[in-house]
Please model this.
Amino acid sequence: MKVHATVLPWLASLALLGGCGTPSQSLQMGVPAGTALQLRSFMPVALRGQVALEAVAGGAETGRFWGSKVSNPALGHALEDSLRAVGLWADKPEVSRYQLKVQLLSLVQPMVSLDTTVGANVHYSLVERASGTVLYQRSVRAAYKAEFSEAMLSQPERIKLANEGAIRATLEIMLRDLPNLAL
Model:
């Protein structure tokens, strides 16, 4: 009986720690430098330096007990950094020719896992500002698996890593689509 009295507080502490959330970081969600350098040379001339980001929607702040989430500001910063890296970001967003609208539709996370796979569904729309013409519109789904070895002692950290990887994958897919636009 004495063993149960000492084990129970430890189990309760572990359960509380397991539910803590770790917010996703924008630097980890952006396109890596090597990929950005590769994509930069394929971007249409008409888009270079002409894309501004409209307010990002659909994100959620990470709560203390409800697991890792992706916030709108973090997603917005990742998008801005990636657009800058591939040469599309407008230096003066208020007079840009195009607007990128982004909405995080879903982030599918496991409750408990060792190797953690998160699926993200993000809707991207590229709109010409003057006419309102939609040039590109796609809901991009991607998944990323964070291995147990990446964060052995912290499931919230693995979920955070998987969130960041899934968002980064959707962003890369969208950026790889842009060179195919007929502008």
Notes: The radius of gyration is 19 Å. Strands lie at 51-53, 98-108, 116-128, 134-146. The chain has a mean pLDDT of 84. The longest helix spans residues 155-177.
